[in-house]
Amino acid sequence: MKIAFIGVGGIAGNYRASLRRLERPIAGVCDINPDRSHEIAKEESARAYTDHTEMLAGIKPDVVFVCIPPGAHTSQVADAARMGAAVFVAKPVALDLDTARRTRDAIADAGVINQTGYMARYSDMVEKAKEIVGDRALAMGNGRFLCRMGATHPWWGKFAVSGGQMLEQTTHVFDLLRYFLGDVERAQSFGIRGVSEGIADFEECTVCNLSYQSGAVGSITSSCVTGGEDSFSAELFGDSFYLKLVLNCDLRGKIGDEAVQFQGEETGYFRQVEQFVAAVEANDQDLVRSDYVNGFKSLAVTVAANQSLATGTVEKVCGD
């Protein structure tokens, strides 16, 4: 299995570490920063590139990990898929729906194994929650993503590159609630900017209310100016049913009069890569829990959430 990377900053380090655990060498790396490309290539004993088309033609990889900012997405994923490579795409899959739609269609036409980097779907905690929920009807889902961003992410605070916190970070929470509650129909957001000096040129604190096609409702809170208790978490509500999922794999709640407590070990960061490699080897897309289509749908929710910030109205989610 010949593996290549497009973009080797940020989350790429996590994926590379998982591949080392799996004893899967990397054949080529591409980054627009030539120094970084050569540095990582040296670490991986791989070939270095600054142009992804040259890398794809030069090493003809079987698998490509795409780890670039939302605003940098153009044709990278589609180009890899058209060459027959399986693709793993870090979230979010793009900045806009037109780019993501073209990519989604290119992947479908190529028929290659594909996955998006929503690691929470692969955690022990979420597996256990899925088992507990079973066929119960869920009425509501709440979530939060709280942190304080800093200068270590120079592009993150620029809306034109990152798409804002809901699209770039809190997408994990939007996707996790989608995993349990299904597709979203409408979104309405409110936000405030200018809370902290120099973090972002967009709203640093937001709330987004959601209505799901199932009839369920939800609300997601984001902040990039402060952390907090259970800063990446989600809550699920039903009739005499409550579960709280926290990123550290802590699952707790109450079903009727019975308390629920579960502490997992696998957050999903490693297992998502392990599962993707297994899917490629078996040529079995069913082993993937977060394909590109789901990445597109989660992007569509956060695009609508951002549109609502701008318009002040309820926005319909475009899922086609």
Overview of this protein structure:
About 35% of the residues lie in helices and about 25% in strands. The protein has about 325 residues and is an alpha/beta fold. The chain folds into 2 domains: about 5-120 and about 270-290, NAD(P)-binding Rossmann-like Domain (Rossmann fold, 3-Layer(aba) Sandwich), CATH 3.40.50.720; about 120-265 and about 300-315, Dihydrodipicolinate Reductase, domain 2. The strands form 2 sheets. Strands 7, 8, 9, 10, 11, 12, 13, 14, 15 and 16 form a 10-stranded mixed beta sheet that branches. Helix 1 (about 10-20) packs across helix 10 (about 270-280), helix 4 runs parallel beside helix 5 (about 95-110) and helix 5 runs antiparallel to helix 11 (about 290-310). The model has no long low-confidence stretch (mean pLDDT about 95).
Task: Report the total helices.
Answer: 11
Beta-strand portion reads 25-35%
Mean pLDDT: 96
Helix content: 25-40%
**Number of domains as seen in the coordinates:** 2
Which oligomerization state do the chains in this entry correspond to? single chain
Number of E-state strands: 16
Radius of gyration over all CA atoms, rounded: 19 Å
Q: Tell me the CATH superfamily of the largest domain.
A: Dihydrodipicolinate Reductase, domain 2
**Uncertain runs:** none
CATH architecture identity of the largest domain: 2-Layer Sandwich
